[in-house]
Design brief:
single chain, 165 residues, alpha/beta, five-stranded parallel sheet
């Protein structure tokens, strides 16, 4: 199948890879021949919810590499990013950015930065938010809070389980 774009970008913290992250990455590889993945630095995540529970960059990188390997993806490059725009604001050869409905505004910020540098805007490819069993979406914040697992299933309190009776 012919890919729509030569080079696409996708970015995130990719903490505790969940179904939403995987859908985002799969879409990037579905539409792009070569995928640039921006992975947020440890410094960039300090103000996120439950930041103290976010896995270190090296662990998130290892988990991301494992996912890419298991799925047979090879045409990619992972680049550490230190701000919301990262390298997408200056890399001339990029053609598209893959985001979720929730991060769509970030793509607009990237395109504004590109326009300020005289670069063509990226085509924005949007995937729907993956729903959770306990809320409107699966998110790393809910996983870090101990409310859901990476598949969006609620985590049960063990103290009342039948095994303890």
């Amino acid at each position: 199948m012919e890919k729509r774009f030569r080079k696409v970008v996708v970015g995130g913290t990719f903490d505790r890879l969940h179904l939403g992250h995987k859908a985002l990455l799969r879409k990037a590889f579905e539409v792009g021949k070569y995928v640039y993945i921006g992975l947020t630095s440890n410094e960039m995540i300090r103000n996120k919810p439950y930041a103290e529970k976010i896995l270190p960059y090296e662990v998130r990188l290892k988990d991301l590499l494992k996912f890419l390997d298991v799925n047979g993806y090879s045409n990619y490059r992972i680049i550490k990013i230190h701000n919301a725009i990262g390298f997408a604001g200056e890399m001339k050869s990029l053609e598209a950015i893959v985001v979720s409905e929730e991060t769509y505004k970030g793509a607009l910020v990237v395109n504004k930065a590109r326009a300020e540098r005289g670069l063509k805007p990226l085509e924005i490819v949007v995937i729907p938010i993956i729903k959770s069993h306990v809320g409107p979406k699966i998110s790393s914040s809910l996983i870090r809070a101990g409310l859901i697992d990476p598949f969006g299933r609620p985590l049960q309190w063990k103290q009342n389980s039948p095994k303890d009776v």
